[in-house]
Every structure is written in structure tokens, then in C-alpha cells.
Write a structure and sequence with these properties.
Blueprint (H helix, E strand, L loop, with lengths): L2 H17 L4 H17 L2 H16 L6 H15 L1 H13 L5 H14 L5 H18 L4 H13 L8 H10 L3 H29 L12 H7 L4 H16 L4 H18 L5 H35 L1 H11 L4 H16 L4 H18 L4 H12 L10 H9 L5 H24 L2 H8 L2
Length: 433
């Protein structure tokens, strides 16, 4: 049996284990270990992989950026900054039809700029925004749908754990991936807002207008977004300017978030324990996934499957964009069944050689990949953002929440098409670094 065929069988077994509900890290670690043993026909060699990969991964300086940015987001969450962020958006945008939904998208984009997680963004905005939309008689479909859609911005607008994983897997500077996500993230935010404008234009009752506020009150509310702006400019501005690396930027951001927590008198022992506890759990989960993915990728490397796939893609007489389109469709489909972070760690080493051999920009491809895999976070059966929203809006059936995300799927896909057609949207800012 050829090694390439063994690689394909290994991928099939892995997907089967994932569909059976096996933890993604355990599944990749197990298939990678036994696959390596089977191909190399050497237990000592397989045990060597099992010894070296976890240590080299856990001791990687590059991956230290993950807990730092997660800690920054957790401190901001427990500081209550998200509440003031939505209050500002609410006072400026609530007066128009569907304004609270638009404010929710805007607040989600702002929170995403210091968070980096879809589930955290959904949970935060759901807790803050959903009660206000219920208060003004928003339909459940719009109220829950815009919160879930806003959650997808959490992994696109930097700092993003998705871009951190892609950058470390592809050996692209994390700072450049952060820069690449800014314009597509803003574009997706605009498309989501347009979706709300269109559906409330068709049925005004789905998103009634909220109260109006005088200009002095609106201007005063702008102080609520100052912490977000300061942290965003400090962290990403410092990275783009070359003042510090992405890891150092994460440390600066976490320290800055802690200063704001102190100023807001939220730095209680309970809040600090929750911030650190959530950071440890999330970071350990991501690190275990990366260890599993690296073990599985060691198996794929000895099968020579990624190289063979890249050679085949170059030799067939098909336009490169057709191949890229096929890969992205595959990402979108798999994203509906597997969480996006494991897929990034798993599939990047497989398809990145194909992309580079076709002459495509790997930064542009990474942005498209992250965007498309977010489709799975608002569609069944995984739909993690919808499940998080269901835990907040317990009185709303899960079917209604999924139904509410349907219009926003078109907004997400429209963003993907535009970025795919105009790559400079994703590559312009990284080219300045």
C-alpha cells in the first residue's frame, strides 16, 4: 500500500473519529502516532514523535502569544467594558430602524478588536445586547441572529486566535496576519449591517426604532469606547510600527487591560481568579489541539501526501482560482462539522503547499480560510455561536436561532466573494509592514 494512500486513509479515520465525538486533540494525536508507526514500521520512531512533538510545541516561544491575548480579552470581559461599548453604539445607532441590531454588530466588532474568540464575543454581546433588543420588541430571529453573526467577527478582527494558529502553522508573522484581518473584518461588519437594513426595510416590525438621545448625551457616551480604542491602537499599532513583537504586544495588551480593570474598580479577587482560570482552560485546550495537529502532520509528512497534492494541483490543466475555490468549499463544508481552530491547525500544512505552488498569496488565502470556516459557527450541526446564544436566550428555540442567522450567512459569503475577487483588501496592510 502506497504511503499517499495511507495518508488518505488516515484523514478518513480522523474525520470518522471527529464525527463520533472524539476530542479533536486526542483524535489527531492517536491517528498521527499510529499512522506514523504503520508507515515507518518502527515503534521507537513513533515514540520519538510522541516525545519530541509535545515538548517542542509546548516550549515554542511563538505560541506564548496565545495565552497573553486570551488573558487580555478575559480581563476586558470581567472589567465590564463591553457594557459601555454597547451603550455607546446604542445611543448613536438605536434611533434608526434595526438600530439596536446594527449597534450589536458594531459593538461586536469593537469587542473583537480586544478579544479574538467567537464564543467569547457571542457570550458577551448576548448578555449585554439581547435584553435591550427584547425590551424594544425585536423579533427573536433578528435579536439572536445578529448576536451570533457578530460573534463570527471575534476570530476575524485582530487579535484573532485563528490568525495566530494560521501564522504559526504557515510560518507567516502573526503581526502580518493581524494586519490582513482588519479590512476584511470591517468589510464583513458593513455587510452584516446592510443585511439588517435590508431585512428591516422589508419588515419594519422585526426591528423597531429605539429611543433618541440628545447630542450632548451621545457625545458623552463616546468615553465608553476609549478603553477599546486605546488598547487596539497600543497593541496593534505597536506591532505594525515594529515597536514590539506579537507576543510582546499580547503582554502589553494584558497589562493595559489590567490597568483599566483597576481604574474601573473591578479588580476583585473573584474577577482575577475567573480571568486567569478561563485563560488557563482556553489556552490549554488550544495547545493540546496544536500538539495533536503537529503529531498528525508528522504522519502526513512521511506519507508525502502534501507534496504530492501540490504537484498534482500544479500539473492539472485547471485555472488556479478553480482549485482555490474547491479548497475553500471543502473548508466551508468541514467547518460545519468541526470547530475552526482545529481545522486551521490540521489543514494548513496540507493545502498551503498547493496554494504557494499555484502562485497565490498565502496571507490572502489565510484570511479567506478563516472567514469561510466561521460559516460553521452559525450553521448546524456545530454552530457553536448559536449554542452559546441558546444558553443565554433560554426561552428561544434553537431552531429559531439558526433561522435568524440565515440572512447573515449571505453577508458572510458576500465578504468572501469580494475578498476573493479583490485580494488587495487582505494584502494591502501587511505589505506596508
Amino acid at each position: 500500500m502506497s504511503p499517499i494512500l495511507l495518508g488518505a486513509i488516515g484523514i478518513g479515520i480522523l474525520l470518522f473519529l471527529l464525527l463520533m465525538g472524539v476530542h479533536i486533540g486526542i483524535a489527531m494525536l492517536s491517528v498521527g502516532f499510529f499512522g506514523y508507526w504503520f508507515v515507518m514500521k518502527s515503534m521507537p520512531a513513533a515514540l520519538g514523535v510522541l516525545k519530541t512533538v509535545p515538548f517542542s510545541t509546548a516550549s515554542s516561544y511563538t505560541l506564548s502569544v496565545i495565552p497573553l491575548f486570551i488573558l487580555m480579552g478575559q480581563i476586558v470581559f470581567y472589567s465590564g467594558i463591553s457594557t459601555e461599548l454597547f451603550d455607546t453604539c446604542y445611543k448613536w445607532l438605536g434611533r434608526v430602524r434595526g438600530g439596536l441590531g446594527i449597534a450589536t454588530i458594531a459593538a461586536s466588532a469593537g469587542f473583537s478588536a480586544i478579544c479574538g474568540s467567537s464564543t467569547a464575543t457571542t457570550a458577551t454581546m448576548g448578555t449585554v445586547c439581547y435584553p435591550e433588543m427584547r425590551k424594544y420588541n425585536y423579533k427573536d430571529t433578528l435579536a439572536t441572529g445578529c448576536v451570533c453573526a457578530g460573534g463570527t467577527l471575534g476570530v476575524l478582527i485582530p487579535p484573532s486566535t485563528g490568525f495566530i494558529l494560521y501564522g504559526t502553522s504557515s510560518q507567516i508573522a502573526v503581526g502580518k496576519m493581524f494586519a490582513a484581518g482588519i479590512l476584511p473584518g470591517l468589510l464583513m461588519t458593513i455587510f452584516y449591517m446592510l443585511v439588517i437594513v435590508i431585512i428591516t426595510g422589508i419588515d419594519p416590525s422585526i426591528g423597531p426604532k429605539a429611543e433618541k438621545f440628545p447630542l450632548p448625551v451621545m457625545m458623552k457616551s463616546l468615553t465608553g469606547i476609549l478603553p477599546i480604542i486605546i488598547l487596539f491602537v497600543l497593541v496593534l499599532g505597536g506591532i505594525f510600527a515594529g515597536w514590539f513583537t506579537a507576543t510582546e504586544g499580547g503582554a502589553v495588551g494584558a497589562f493595559g487591560a489590567f490597568i483599566f480593570m483597576l481604574l474601573r474598580k473591578k479588580a476583585s479577587l473573584d474577577n482575577m481568579k475567573k480571568s486567569l482560570g478561563d485563560t488557563i482552560k482556553t489556552s490549554a485546550m488550544i495547545l493540546f489541539i496544536i500538539i495533536g495537529a503537529n503529531t498528525f502532520n508528522s504522519f502526513l509528512t512521511v506519507t508525502n501526501m502534501p507534496t504530492a497534492l501540490a504537484k498534482w494541483a500544479v500539473e492539472i490543466h485547471v485555472p488556479p482560482m478553480v482549485i482555490i475555490g474547491f479548497i475553500l468549499v471543502l473548508y466551508a463544508v468541514l467547518g460545519c462539522f468541526v470547530d475552526s481552530l482545529p481545522l486551521i491547525a490540521l489543514l494548513t500544512p496540507i493545502f498551503l503547499p498547493v496554494v504557494t505552488d499555484l502562485g497565490m498569496n498565502p496571507i490572502w488565502f489565510g484570511v479567506l480560510m478563516v472567514m469561510l470556516m466561521q460559516l460553521g459557527s452559525i450553521t448546524p450541526p456545530v454552530g457553536i455561536c448559536c449554542y452559546v446564544m441558546s444558553g443565554i436566550a433560554k426561552e428561544v428555540p434553537l431552531f429559531t436561532i439558526f433561522k435568524g442567522t440565515i440572512p447573515f450567512i449571505f453577508g458572510l459569503l458576500a465578504t468572501v466573494v469580494v475578498v476573493m475577487a479583490v485580494p488587495v483588501i487582505a494584502t494591502y496592510l501587511p505589505s506596508l509592514m
